[in-house]
Structures are given as structure tokens and as C-alpha cells.
Design a protein that fits this description.
7-stranded mixed sheet, 6 helices
Length: 197
Amino acid sequence: MTEDLPGAGELILLAGLGNPGPQYAGNRHNVGFMVLDELAARIGGKFKTHKSGGEVLEGRLAGRRVVLVKPRSYMNLSGGPVAGAAKFYKIEPSGVVVVHDELDVDFGTLKLKFGGGDNGHNGLRSISKSLGTRDYYRVRFGIGRPPGRQDPADFVLKDFSTVERKELPLEVDRCADATEALIGTGLAAAQNSFHAG
């Protein structure tokens, strides 16, 4: 296993974070689900309920075998379903890629990284705890900081703004491209292609 390429030669787990239920579907916090839905469309399959506590879809992306996972738990309990699926499919943390919203990255900007802290993101905190390590890949979809004095906890549970919604399909598509690049060409090449500036 090289640190640059997730789960080299093995099955890769792609987890998208969000909250279940239609009332959350358009929230900033649910962009991980949106990206996984786009990846599922590319595979041409439908998610099925899995005993790990998530919805899963197996297929191929970027020439690699993947299993897509959307936890059916709330965001702050994402770790159970993600770790459960990783255990079921015998995937090491180094073969796990988590797609999530990121407050400290501007809307329209993507950042890819391996390991690091959770930056106050409850979904990541739960996953790190359940996996027993922070050493997994992250695809960070920028949502920006809330305006004025709005509480970040409220901000992430609001839908994208009207202006953002016009760009959202393009950005979700680009994030799906970046995720495929990460698993197909490795971290450094994907960062070179998708990090701005």
C-alpha cells in the first residue's frame, strides 16, 4: 500500500456523509450524499440497505472495485455504518475515502487529503473514533463559512443559497471527478488536477 493511492489493488470504500430523510436532502451537510448519488449514477446501480447500517452499492470506478456507502444514521453517528461496512468488506482504513462538506474551504473549491484532524466535523470525528485512526482519505467539498454571526451548526443544516444552487450540479460533478481521480491516479495527481491555484 502506498499512501498516495487508496487501498492499492484492493476494494475501496467510498463513504458520503449526510443526514437521512427528505427534510435534509438539500442541506449543505448532505453534499457527501449528493456526490455519492452522482457516482452511483456513473456506476449505473441503485443503493441497497446493508446490515452495517448504511446503504451500499458495489461497482467499478476509475478501473477500481469500489463499494459506495451512505450511512443511514445521523451525521454525528456516521462512524458505525462506515466502520461496519469496512469490516464487512475487509477494507483497511487506508482504503477508505470519505466525501464531506467543509466549512473552512470556500464554496466551489475542493481539497483532497490523507489523514489529519476532524476540524470540528462531527461526522469525521465519529468515523475516526470508529475506525480507530485518522488515517483515511478525505474529499472535502467547500461550503464556506456562514455569513455574519450565524451559528455554523445552523448553517450546515440549511439548503445551499439560490446562487450556489445554480452551480451545485457542476460542483457535485467535479467532486465526483476528483474522487475518481483520487482512486484512479492517486492523491498527488488528483490534488494537482483539482486544487485551485
